[in-house]
Amino acid sequence: MLPVIASMLTFALVGSITPGPVNIIATASGARFGLRRTLPHVTGATVGYVLVVAVTGLTLAEATRLLPQVSRIMALGGALFLLWMAFRIATAPVTAADAADTQATPPRLTDGALVQILNPKAWLWAMSGVGLFVSGPDRAAGAMLALFCLLSFAMCFVGVGSWAVLGHLIRQALAAPERQRWFNRAMGALLAASVLPLLPEVLTAISGDL
Questions:
Q1: Which parts pass through the membrane (predicted)?
Q2: What pTM value is reported for the model?
């Protein structure tokens, strides 16, 4: 059992700590608002991913059948949402080093959850994990799914939280408003660029070929 748990932990950590939209937002928020005010986003992203894993585990066969149609709809919604978040980050007002950015709003728990739920890659990763660790005639699927969800929660929180910590650590280096401005623009551009892999499915969804 321990080797299976170790494999689950590794799989979940790799999926959550690699660069992606959720982690770009976490870094930008950590740099601007600090770690404490970024925790709702980290928590929301974690809860959102665990929901994806749970739904996938409970409906794997149906999700596999519907994936082409569902992924196109999610790609369109996800692309629009990410572009909106990218605009928010890139145009965020900057503050002087000694000014508390208390009036601005950091990413909310629901923002983090939506980014995960609308990300087709999160569903594909969850399907891979469920197929690898949960499915199988010799396994108690319910118990294995619960274990996989629990470990995914822990590793996703660590993975996304690591990027929030990174943003928090470079906060002092961004004390000058001009540095903040360029950092915000760079993070916004990176987040917008993350939409590029979704473009084929977005164009298909727009064309009505569902």
A1: 42-61, 73-91, 143-170, 182-200
A2: 0.75
